[in-house]
Inverse folding.
């Protein structure tokens, strides 16, 4: 007695296996998504801590607010100036050198015109402080940028018969200067009744301090402007935040910031 072979629906079995695999894949994707969401706060926390550490010890980005360092650095009131990277490591192992462009915290006598940028609103001010920790908001202090002209023990003055700044009696080579006060020997120099605005009497820089000036000499409230204060216009090295190394914004001005050997040593 013969019998018919049983018929098996192979296509149905194949579809079931495919559906099972799809469900498994979907569950796996959900697990990955949940895992990522769990790890996201940790990743953000690590990024914030890393940012704070880098800003505190390695580098920081600063905005140039004025024209005092033109043409080296651009800035102006009410506009967006250059953004510069200030490197902090070098001065942990050595002191600023003549020719370096530095960012420093202004001593008390330099802060008379400084106005805090912090909000009076407690909540908003809190966000500003947090933003400052991670480098998104400027710190609430008078941070300035100038060029080192003389260091501890050196005597700086102006001018020689060509209108140049002297350090220990030797004229400086300063190719970066944009503007300076008029200086005409015999007509308006440091010996005429009406002196040139370039002129200032000799100052011996105390040890552990630096004398700084802006590259835009006729538009810079630098050490010359504060020479009557208790520090004779000099900046304590402890106030120096770091050396300006690079311009990072705007893109058209990206590049390094020169620190020439202005004393020829």
């Amino acid at each position: 007695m013969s019998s018919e072979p049983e018929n098996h629906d192979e296509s149905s079995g194949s579809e079931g296996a495919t559906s099972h695999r799809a469900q498994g894949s979907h569950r796996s994707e959900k697990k990955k998504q949940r895992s990522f969401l769990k790890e996201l706060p940790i990743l953000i926390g690590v990024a914030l801590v890393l940012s704070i550490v880098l800003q505190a010890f390695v580098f920081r980005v600063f905005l140039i607010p004025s024209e005092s360092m033109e043409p080296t650095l651009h800035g102006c009131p009410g506009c967006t100036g250059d953004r510069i990277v200030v490197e902090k490591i070098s001065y942990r192992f050595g002191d600023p050198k003549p020719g370096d462009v530095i960012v420093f915290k202004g001593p008390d006598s330099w802060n008379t015109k400084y106005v805090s940028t912090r909000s009076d609103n407690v909540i908003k001010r809190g966000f500003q402080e947090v933003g400052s920790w991670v480098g998104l908001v400027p710190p609430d202090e008078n941070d300035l940028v100038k060029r080192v002209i003389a260091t501890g023990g050196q005597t700086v003055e102006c001018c020689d018969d060509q209108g140049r700044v002297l350090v220990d009696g030797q004229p400086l080579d300063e190719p970066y200067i944009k503007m300076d006060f008029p200086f005409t020997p015999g007509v308006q120099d440091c010996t005429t009744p009406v002196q040139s605005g370039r002129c200032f009497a000799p100052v011996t820089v105390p040890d552990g301090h630096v004398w700084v000036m802006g590259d835009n000499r006729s538009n810079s409230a630098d050490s010359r402007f504060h020479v009557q204060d208790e520090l004779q216009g000099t900046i304590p090295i402890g106030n120096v935040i770091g050396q300006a190394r690079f311009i990072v914004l705007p893109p058209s001005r990206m590049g390094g910031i020169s620190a020439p050997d202005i004393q020829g040593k």
